[in-house]
Amino acid sequence: MKAISKSQIKRDALVKATICLVNNNGFHATPMSKIAKMANVSPATIYLYFKNKQDLANQVYMEVKAEFSSFAFKDYDPGMSVEEGFQKIWMNIATFKLREVDHALFLSQCDNTPMIDEESRQQGLKHLEPLVELWERGKKEGILKPLSPFVLYAFTIYPITFLMNIENGGLCKVDEQALEKAYVAAWDSIKL
Amino acid sequence: MKAISKSQIKRDALVKATICLVNNNGFHATPMSKIAKMANVSPATIYLYFKNKQDLANQVYMEVKAEFSSFAFKDYDPGMSVEEGFQKIWMNIATFKLREVDHALFLSQCDNTPMIDEESRQQGLKHLEPLVELWERGKKEGILKPLSPFVLYAFTIYPITFLMNIENGGLCKVDEQALEKAYVAAWDSIKL
Amino acid sequence: MKAISKSQIKRDALVKATICLVNNNGFHATPMSKIAKMANVSPATIYLYFKNKQDLANQVYMEVKAEFSSFAFKDYDPGMSVEEGFQKIWMNIATFKLREVDHALFLSQCDNTPMIDEESRQQGLKHLEPLVELWERGKKEGILKPLSPFVLYAFTIYPITFLMNIENGGLCKVDEQALEKAYVAAWDSIKL
Amino acid sequence: MKAISKSQIKRDALVKATICLVNNNGFHATPMSKIAKMANVSPATIYLYFKNKQDLANQVYMEVKAEFSSFAFKDYDPGMSVEEGFQKIWMNIATFKLREVDHALFLSQCDNTPMIDEESRQQGLKHLEPLVELWERGKKEGILKPLSPFVLYAFTIYPITFLMNIENGGLCKVDEQALEKAYVAAWDSIKL
DNA sequence: GATGAATGAGTTTTCATTCAT
DNA sequence: TATGAATGAAAACTCATTCAT
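Predict the joint structure of the above. Result:
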C-alpha cells in the first residue's frame, strides 16, 4: 500500500545518521561527509534534501521533537483527573527517554547547546501545550502548588533527562520499580 | 600586597574568554583565534599556558568546578540537621547558578556534551561528596526517601540548571520569593 | 586506447611536483601548499589522493624505487656470466642515475634523511635482491672478493650517487667515456 | 691555564645539541627551542652566538668539517709514497667516520641535503686539497688511473660514508679486519 | 651577556559546500 | 535525482625570531 519512495528512504537514512553521529560526537564535531557515509549517500546528496548543515539540524530536531510530543500524550485524555493525567504524561515521557535513548539523547543535546536556531527551539517548546494546560487546571483546582510552568517542568520532567544521561553513561539502571519511586518524587514536588 | 603577575593576568583573560565564547557558541564552534582575540593575545600565546584546546577546556572546567564546589558548601557544617544542611547547600547552589551565570552555564555545557575528558569529568564528580554524605545520613535518620543519590540529585539540584537556562534565555525571572518556592518543591520531592 | 583518467593526471602532477620540490628544498622545507600550487591544484585536493604528508612521501618513494629497480635489471638475465651480469646491472643503474636525475636525486634524499617510514624503507631495500644473488654466485665462483654485500655495494653502486650529485651541481660532466672508466674502477674494486 | 669562558661553554653546548638533534630529526625538523633546551639555554641566547638558524647550521658545518680535515691528514706527510700516503689518509678518514659517528653523520646530512649554504659547502670542499694533490702526483707517477678527482673520491672515500650509515643502522659491524679488506677494495679501484 | 614571554607568519589538515556529469 | 571530485576558507598548532627586563 504505502509505497515508500526511494527519496524518503534516503532522507530517513540521513536523519538517522545525523542523530547517531551528533549523539556520539556533538554537532560541530560531526562532518557532513561522515553523515553522508553513514547514510550510504554522496555528500552532495544531503543538499538535495536540506539547505545546509544548520537546516539539517533544525529539521531533525523538529521531527524528533514532534515524535517525542506525540509519544508524550499517547492515551492521554484532557478529561482525566489532574493526577491521573499527569501520571500518564510523566510515565510516557519517562518511557520515551529511557527506552528511545537515541532520540532522547539527541533532544538533550539540542536543548543544552547552541546548535539549534532560536526559532526552531521556540517551535519545539510549543509541543508541551497540553501539559501546561493540565497544570493550569491543577492549580485552579487547588491540587498543584502555584508555581510557574517553568518551575513545574524543572522539578518533574527535566529530572528525567538527568536519569537518562546517567543510565546511558552506565552509572545506574532505572527499572520499573525505580521509575515508580521517581514518579512519586516528581509528584510530591509539585502537589499541594 | 599580592602582586599578580602579568602571566596570571593573561591566563585569567584566556580563561574568561573561553567561558564566554563557549557559552555562546559551544566548544567546537569556538576557534582558538577568537579566544585569543577576546583575551587580547596572539593565538600562539594560548599555547604557552595550555597544551592544546582540549587541555584548555579541561583546565577551565576543573577550575570553575572547584569554584562551584567551594561556593556550594560555604557556611555548611556537617553538624547541621539534615534539613538545615540541605537547605544551606541547595540555596548556595541556586545562588551560584542564578548569580554566577557565566560559570554555571559553562559547567552545564561541560556536563551535557562530550567536550571534557572523561578523566577530568570524573574528578569533577567528586566535588559533591559532602552532599551525598548528608543524603545518606538523611536516609538513615528516616527523614529522606530511600532513593539513590542520582535520583535525589535529579529532583533537587538538576532542576536549578533548567531554571538558570530559562532565566538566561529571558523567559522568566527567578527572584527571592520564587527561589523559596522552588526550594520547597525540591525538599518536598525527597523528604519522607 | 589507454584512457588516462583525470584523477590519474592530477595524481601524477602531484607526484612530480613532490619530487621536484623535495629535490630542491628537502622534505621538511617543502610545504604542501607549494606542492599543490606546482601541481595546479588546491591544497585540499592532495588529501583526496594521499592520507597526509608522510603518506605522500612514502608513496612517491615506493613508486620511484620500483621504477629504479625495474630499470636496474632491464635486459639482465641470471644466466649471464658474473662479470657480464654485473656490468649490465651497473650500467643500467648508472644510466638511470645520470639520466633520470630527478628520480635518482629524490631516492638519494630519501635514503640519506629520516623522511621515509622505516617500513617503506625496508620495502625499498628488497629491490636489489637479484644483484645480491649475483654477488653470492661471484664469490662462490672465485671471481669476486669475499666481501659482504654492504661493502660490495659501497664500492660499486654507491659511488654512482656521488657522481650524480657532482654532475648535478654542475661541477663535472660524466660522458660515455667517463662512464666506461668509472665502471672499470667499480669492477676492479671487487674482482679478485 | 686555558680558562674556557662561560660563553665558550655555552656555544659548545649549542653546537653539540645541534649536531645531536639534526642527526636524529633532520635540520628542518629540529626547532631552535629544542636546541636551546638541550643546551640548557634560553632560545634567545642562541641569537647571541649565531645570526639565525641558517648561520648556526653553516657554522657548525664548517667547524665539524675542519675537525674532519685535520683528522684526515694527521701523521700524513707529503713526502710519503703515493700508496703509503693514500693509505694513511684513507685510514684516517675511515677511523673518523666509524668512530666519531656523530660528527660524521652530521657531515653526511649536510652533504646530502640542501640544508647548507652553497657558499659554505664550497668552502668545505677545499679541505681535501692535499688529497687531491697526492692523487695528481699518483697519476703523474703512473701509479693511479687517469681519473678525475671526483671519480677517485667517489670510489675510495665516499663508500666509507655508506659503511658508516649501515653500521650506524645496526645492519653490520665494521671491525679492524673488515676495514683492511675495504681498504684493499678502495685501492684496487684506483690503482693502475 | 642572558632570558622568558610573546608573536606574526606559516604549517598541515579539515570541512561545508558546489559543480560538471 | 544523484554523485565523485574539487576547493576556498578556516581550523589547530608550530616556530624562528624579537624585546623588555
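Chains D and B do not touch (no CB pair under 8 Å).
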